[in-house]
């Protein structure tokens, strides 16, 4: 069925013949824009509902929306021609933030998405090329990171250094240099001055509804058009480099050990995981690796605080066995969450103070990230809606520039 809504056309494929027609057309493409939709897509308990595909070089080409639910338990056989395209070494798949897409295909459909370029990653790699330095990189992360870097560490870490000499403020100042904030598709289009098409708002819990309302189908098709537009711009700017494919494959497959749980903070956040673009950062191929006790990834030593601290945490025994440290990104997740919790707390206390003249000292700087950050983070076990693809942090910061000073520049 081919239909149109708000001038966005799409072809819904829910029969064997419509799949054959789509594959006939798509198999001639060298680059396919790929985007998946679903309820809690890629997470434990989630369901893949739609696979969206289009020729990434032709903005006006058909937007094929494959209704996976229509094929029910037979999808592995009846959608095999589609899965062959996704696994094909001859067609490059263009994704935006494809980790959850990969998870859904890999864990639920036994399909290994390969030969990919992830343009969310290309955006991050383009930042230094656009003149962005550490200052702006930290500002993207938020005020609390800027302050920590400026001071060379939090008051707690300085105290720790005094006590046992195992923490170095310089190291702490450096620690967020490896941390990059991911942008959502909408903000990425804006930052790169790609017009794109407007995307309707949808409730993502309703992707299981059948028949799927046209708003949802328009949403899926719009994403395909926007991914393709951004890809073409990135090619023109020279941001799609040969090594990007290898980095993209590493990026999208980071959760191939298991799917993230809904709300799992170390696997659902808006920071680029480590060891993706600076592969084996901090060492050579023989560098020792350590399992992060946040994200559970095996990472090189250079992804953890300085060696003394690293050894200190690695050798700390807990009841469940040997504890390891947290990587810089997991520490950033903790710091970000602490900040958010303090903001909530501050709001609660401000309303309290208006009645009781109570002064609340709004200070991010104590108890930020000391040696036992794990415990500090676990104590803040509140749920927020994080979505890797849509990136609420981006909305949060870009729409509230007053929180941490000046708004980000757009290029
Ligand atoms: Zn980690």
TrEMBL record:
Q: Which domain of life is it from?
A: Eukaryota
Q: Which Pfam families match?
A: DNA_pol_A_exo1
Q: InterPro entries from the entry?
A: 3'-5'_exonuclease_dom, RNaseH-like_sf, RNaseH_sf
Q: Where is the 3'-5' exonuclease domain?
A: 12-233
Q: Which Gene3D superfamilies match?
A: Ribonuclease H-like superfamily/Ribonuclease H (3.30.420.10)
* Residue ranges of the TM segments: none
> What's the protein name?
3'-5' exonuclease domain-containing protein
From the broadest rank down, the organism's phylogenetic lineage runs: Eukaryota, Fungi, Dikarya, Basidiomycota, Agaricomycotina
